[in-house]
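Suppose you are handed only two things: the residues of a chain and a line of SMILES describing pyridoxal-5'-phosphate. What would the bound structure be? This form records exactly that question and the answer produced for it, so the two can be stored side by side and reused later without any lookup.

QUESTION INPUTS
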Amino acid sequence: MTINNIAYIDLQAQWTTEKKDLLKIIDNVMSSGQFVGGKYVDQFEKKIAKFCNVKYAVSLNSGTDALTVALHCAGVKKGDEVITAPNSFISSASVIAHLGAKPVFADVLEDQNIDPEEIEKVITKKTKAIIPVHLTGRICEMKKINKIAKRKNIVVIEDAAQAIGSKYYNKMSGSIGHIGCFSTHPLKNLNASGDGGFITTNNALYAKRIKKLCNLGIINRNIVEEFGYVSRLDNLQAAILLYRLSKMKDVIRKRRNNVDFYMKNLDKNHVFYPKEKKYQFNTYHTFVIQVRERDKLRNYLKKKGIGTAIHYPIPIHLQPAAKKLKYNKNSFPVTEKQSKEILTLPVHQFLSLKQIKFITDTINEYFKQ
Ligand SMILES: *Cc1c(COP(=O)(O)O)cnc(C)c1O
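ANSWER OUTPUT
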């Protein structure tokens, strides 16, 4: 990767650095003949539970399935309501609808995370669960959210798909609510080479039921206790994830260093980004800035060979799929304003200091014109 060809994400660079090790690992799994489930799946679940500082982790097919099964396990069904953020990836809302429940949105704060006060306003007797999304890898105000949930006897399901390794004070993401949901999609910080995900919890009953639900509800080989899902992690993906998990601390350190450089050097008169709060240790799946005339800056960067992205340009409540929910423009002013101003800069662990500097200088230079 050259200075004027900076990708927003760089999976080729990852393969180049890991190829020698991964080819051996892949050979191992292929020779074992164990593909669905297997020893690497078991090992991964143990190691990731330890990493997230929870008693139990159950691996499955995707972050989306993690959310579906978590909601199912929390008893969410037809007629219930589940509160989440309108600025998330579409999964957080679509899983609610799939279970026959109603997605109810609450607007976000300037840091793009759900506003606990807005949650209070939309709670009803039908509210069964809250899904706070640790967007960009920035941890939500969990103490306030948990307090509201406890008072109303509501289940808190963390969407931690973007936040592996992030902390609320010293609590790991996925260990703060009742259940944590993670994705190991190729674009996430801990990534498989295909779809994958896992659920974390300290609740033994939840863990046992989730494990069962993910394997069609089967126990003891032939007894189906309840109708479930086919959502399992492949042994091959588990082996790859185990290998990458061993490098996770380094990945987090590099990403945080990159963000640190941006924060110190970007032109603060034109570029807004939320600072890390006292309670946050963020692992930055993405680094999102907020700027006026975002599309112009994006084009300028593109011309200079710098890849960026927008997470996400159309809020969920304004998607055609959400029409039935009867929200409209101005339903969530903060989310809608941010959707026009947010820009995701490259922050991945394979960027060189020279490249980060080039990106920073180019942005600052744009605002000087
Ligand atoms: C990626 C993501 C998901 C879904 O994960 P998949 O593994 O792609 O199904 C859910 N929520 C958020 C916030 C995500 O970023």
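WHAT STANDS OUT: The pocket of pyridoxal-5'-phosphate is lined by residues 62-64, 88-89, 91-92, 133, 159, 161-162, 183, 185, 195, 197 (CB under 6 Å). The chain has a mean pLDDT of 96.
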